[in-house]
Amino acid sequence: xxxxxxAGYEVGNLDATLIAQRPKLSPHKAAIKASLVEMMxxxxxxxxxxxxxxxxxxxxxxxxxxxCHTVVLLYKRT
Length: 78
Hints:
By secondary structure, the protein is α+β, with helices and mostly antiparallel strands. The protein has helices at 2-6, 29-40, 58-61, and strands spanning 9-19, 47-52, 67-76. It has a single domain, classed as CATH 3.30.1330.50. The protein is 27% helix and 35% strand. Strands 2-1-3 form a three-stranded mixed β-sheet.
């Protein structure tokens, strides 16, 4: 975030999907979102967080890994 701000950018929004068979992430979503909001210094409405399983497919589904797909919209300050 320091580097983005130093380059003149701000976060417009963040959309993240956490993928794991275990642990179940739903009970932790609020805490994870609050941590992201604090770290990025944005309003909570700018962060969208989803948790999914991988239906026992590949390393994620076999509980050997956790994945996260994230898209962040940055805008240049004027």
